[in-house]
Each structure stands twice: as C-alpha cells, then as structure tokens.
Amino acid sequence: MDKLKEINWKKEGLQMARDYALIVAGALLTAMSFVWFFLPHDIAPGGVTGIATILASAVPLGVGLISFLINLPLFALGFSHVGWRFAVRSFVAMMLLSLFIDLIPVQMLAEDIMLSAVFGGVGLGVGLGLVVRAGATTGGTDMAAMLIHSKAGFLSVPGILFAIDATVVVVAAMVFGLQAGLFALVALFVSAKAMDAVIKGFNTAMQFLIISDHTEEIIRRIHVEVNRGCTRLEARGTYEGKRLGMLMCVVSRMEAARLKKLVSEVDPRAFVTICDVHETLGEGFTYGM
Question: How many CB atoms lie within 10 A of CB 79?
Fold first, then answer.
C-alpha cells in the first residue's frame, strides 16, 4: 500500500497519455510516408513493412494486413524477451501502423522518385522516432533480432537488424528493379538519420570542460557575461599529482562562441574540451522528458 501511495497517479496518467499520443502520431506519420512516397514507387526500405511491400506485389492483400500477419508470430515469440509495457505499447503501435497503411488512400505526392525517397525517408524516420520516444516499436524485426541475439549472443541486435534491412533491400531490387532498390537504400539512410535526430532530441547544446588556474575569474565572467552557471569539479593531474581547477559548463550553441572567447581572454593556456550534448534538461533548458 505504501508503494501505491508513493505513485503520482496524475503524473503517471499524463505521461501515459503523452506516450500514446506520440505512438498514434508516429504510426500515422510513418503510414503516410509509405502510402504517399514509397508504395507509388515500389520503394521497400527494410523492415517488416518492406517485406510486406514486396509480398503485396504477388498476393491480393494490402501492405498493412500483410505487415500485421507477419508481425503477429514475431510478437508472440518475442513477448517474453521484453518488458510487458514495451510489448503492449509496441503491439498497439504495430496495429495502428498496419491499420493506417491500409486506410490511407495511396497517392503519388512526388513523381520524382528521388524526392519520394528523401521526403518519405524523413517522414518515416520522424514517425519511428516518435514511437521509440514513447517507449515502443512498430515492427517485429526488433523482436526477431532480440530472439536471434538470445540464441546467438555473438550477433548484436543492431547487426541483425542491419542484415534484415539489407536482405529486404536486395530482394526489393530483384523484384522491382535495381533503381527501386537503390532508392530504397537512400530512403533507409535518410530515415535512420531522421530517426536518430528525433530520438536524441533537437535541443542541442555544447558542454565545456575547462581546466585552468584562473577558474574564479572564468566563473565570474560566465555568470556576468553569459548568464549561465557552471559546476566546479575536483581534478588532479596524473603526472605531478597537482590539484587542478576544472569547470563544467553547458551552454546553447549561440552562447558557445562567446564562452570560448571569454575563456581565451582570461587564460590563453587553459585546457578546454567541447562536445555536443543532444538533449539538455533542467534549469535554463528544457524540463521534462
């Protein structure tokens, strides 16, 4: 009972509503990418839906229905290898995607196959990224990869997924022609980049690690000129065992150039490393997940 009292049901409910809204939006966007950009040009960019696109050219069934029928046994076999929450959300996402693909009328928005591959890839990647951010997946290939990995541990899940997608693209090239296969590779590449951007987040920032003998002055100028805080870290050099002043500071990309100039002015000999931060949560940035 105590544990139940500790759960913030309102917060949990809002989070669940947000996640399922992302799943619906992601499934819809993914389906639109297929029926408006990929299917009119016979582009099959990997995964179960790519397999279904190939099979639909030989059997009188819709791509969505074929995807659902392929996914069913994969989900049934892979259910025990993932958490129940992930499995339920993924099953909902898979059903919605299959339904949307068959319900949305197929139409050619772009006659140029390159435009279709690029814009379809962007839509596919963003849609799948939204689903993944909601803690789900749309395809049984993920389940299949986990199953294969559990039986053959030397094979990684990303490697298995790549092998599946590559096989689908090769078969698509054999069925629909080399050009369709090549553009399927373009769509696959673009979708992977778009999906990666959505999963990692667009709230990019820069993280500075600054080692200097003049940390107090650097801190003062960061507070005054950049209007940011920073974190002082304990550091010690490995050669002489000397204690070093180290600061960690995360700033927006617009503020990065100002911070570099500031540090250089205070201490030209300061040791500074700068790296990208794909998502930043907390004071001065974004709250929530």
Answer: 16
DSSP secondary structure string, 141-198?
HHHHHHHHHHH-TTS-HHHHHHHHHHHHHHHHHHHH-HHHHHHHHHHHHHHHHHHHHH
Order of strands across the sheet that contains 205-212:
231-236, 243-251, 205-212, 271-277
What is the Cα Rg of the chain in Å?
A: 24
Which tokens sit at 259? 């911070």
What's the predicted TM-score (pTM) here? 0.73
| Residue 114 CA: distances (Å) to CA of 34, 121, 180, 181, 187 | 14, 10, 10, 12, 9
* Torsion region of 122: left, alpha or beta (phi above 0 gives left; psi -120 to 50 gives alpha): alpha
Written as one string, the DSSP assignment of 225-245 is II----EEEEEE-TTT--EEE
How does pLDDT run across 34-79, given as a tens digit for each residue?
999 998 998 888 888 888 988 988 888 888 899 999 888 888 777 7
Matching residue, tokens 């790296």? 275
- Strands, DSSP E only, in 2-149? none
Q: How far apart (Å, rounded) are the C-alpha atoms in residues 210 and 248? A: 6
